[in-house]
Write a structure and sequence with these properties.
The protein has helices at 2-19, 24-30, 42-68, 76-96. It is mainly alpha-helical.
């Protein structure tokens, strides 16, 4: 019985050393002495802002389409068909927009 307890304590100790932040050999190997450059260029910031606005527009457009349809079903098969219907209507709407 004591052997089982000792094995459990040792496994728990190893798990804590490996997964605990700021301790264990895994975190020591992951440390890097060089500073990390966290600056973002203006073009990268513009791209992220553009993609954010695009995602917001697509979400808004999807919500407008869902308002015109019947309520979202709870059955998984019906949900899949509903999602396909919404995606099809979204593609139709986007294809009719001028570029």
């Amino acid at each position: 019985m004591i052997e089982v307890l000792m094995v459990f304590v040792m496994v728990a100790f190893v798990a804590i050393c490996v997964f605990w932040p700021q301790s264990g050999s895994a975190s020591l190997l992951a440390k890097n002495d060089q500073p990390v450059d966290r600056t973002v260029s203006i073009s990268e910031a513009d791209l992220s802002a553009d993609s954010m606005f695009e995602n917001q527009y697509l979400t808004h457009l999807q919500q407008e389409i869902e308002v015109t349809l019947f309520p979202r079903p709870t059955d998984s098969v019906l949900k899949r068909h509903y999602d396909n219907l919404v995606a099809t209507k979204l593609k139709e709407h986007l294809s009719q927009m001028p570029m």
